[in-house]
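Structure in, sequence out. Go:
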């Protein structure tokens, strides 16, 4: 079984960014973030999350 949004998960982990931090920036709860990542996200949502990861990694 292929893990959905693997690129996002790996990028966050590699940059030391937790899912709860991404969720906080999106204004959602961590469980909601986890549920969203269960199925592949549209490209525009992926890009938004990648931008947040990059922003958090710089802090």
């Amino acid at each position: 079984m292929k893990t959905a949004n693997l690129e996002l998960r790996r990028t966050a982990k590699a940059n030391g960014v937790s899912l709860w931090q991404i969720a906080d920036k999106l204004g959602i709860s961590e469980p909601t973030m986890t549920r969203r990542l269960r199925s592949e996200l549209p490209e525009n949502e992926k890009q938004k999350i990648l931008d947040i990861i990059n922003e958090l990694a710089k802090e």
